[in-house]
Design a protein that fits this description.
Length: 255
Amino acid sequence: MILGFDHAIYLVTESDGLDAAAQRFAALGFTITERDDADRQTAATAQNLICFADGSYIEILAIRDAAARRRHRFASLLDRGDGWADTSVHTDDLASIAARLQHASLPLRGPLDHERRLASGEPWGVRLILPGIGAGHPALPFVIEDIAGRDLRIPTAGRRHANGVTGTAGVSTSVRDLEVLRPGFEALFGPAMPAAPPLHDCLRSLRYAVGPHWLDVIERPNAEEGMISLALTRSGATGTEWIATGATAIALVGG
């Protein structure tokens, strides 16, 4: 069962660009969280988090180590400039999700375990499968199941934001042909929901329920494929307001 969105990844393409990217988000009214991982200063990747009250978050990610940059599944994205790279959903039954994807004859990597510790020694860890970037189609999200310390992986402090954002509403992802990708999205989320106006101009679109959230898959035959925007819920908002950090769009919607 898919429980909802876990996190979106904002990729910083310069190895030393994490602080500048975090400052751009902070200028938009987001609270930046630095998770106190034990290897924070020496790990090949570095990240800041923007954590929300609904348990989802944004990971601002930089790949610092030169060898890691060459072999990372985001290596092909590093020349395009900072921006959205990927999104993930979380589940309490990863084995069943993997079986559904395999039944649909979709390529995937995993399950893979990723475990770390805070500087205090407390462990957190996830098990994940990759049907999207690094294995299959870049529009498909990766899937996470927590195996230890979800409240450590996603810190509970810092979830209030000056801009009023409380959580993730949905994600928009671009594909060149809806019908090619429909089996993958249906294996993850079931049949599409009734039509809803997408946030972006496109030829056609499908909306899928992701727990209490949504995923818009929009058809743009000549566009780059993959995640293009994140929609966030803001208390008291009416209509849709777009804000941007660099070239990356964020939609703020009422909730």
